Amino acid sequence: MKLAILFSGGKDSTFTLYYYLQQGWDIKCLITLKSNNKESYMFHTPNIDITKHQSKALNIPLLQQQTSGEKESELQDLKKAFVKAKEKYNIEGIAVGAVLSDYQSERVNRICEELQLKCYTPLWHKNQELLLNEMIDCGFEIIIQSIAADGLNKRWLGRRIDRQTIAELAQLQKKLGLHPAGEGGEYESLVLDAPIFKKKIVIEKSHVEMENENTGLFVIEKIRLENK
Fold it and tell me: What does pTM read for this prediction?
């Protein structure tokens, strides 16, 4: 099966890529939507240009599609990206790292049906705490790059997701109902390294921007790719 991965550079899309590479599937390209709207309903927006460097680190081609990020028109932009991938790489299916979002899953499925592509969601409805631990067990290096929820504050930005982080997220789930994997938009992640990376991403310069006590962004200004 010739497959494209809908790729944000975050933990879920990268783990989906990892899953299919481990299964021996033919991954032809990554597809990233670059949204002009930071409040996009569909797409991950923080530090989205890092996907270009992740593509190089993975040695997998990246197809990037610009979108206004408006609620329904962004779906047409997603369809354009899928059409380009089908024409250029002759893909037969799309894999998505959706865990809980019916909104995203239903719309990607619909577009795939229109284009006669298979749609795969290997992480769908997995236990979020167990999923995070599985990623760590597999050697993923993940940081938190944005926050937007009670219980999270400035100290979480740029923080590596490890056992202690997962335990604290589980406690926030019990206390406040926070989704441990950020499926309610509580946080966004970025993968700096994983077993499938040929090179790892090293952050050389960054800063934190806070909108309020519980909402902020870890802005990455400069990175380098480092041999492993």
Answer: 0.94
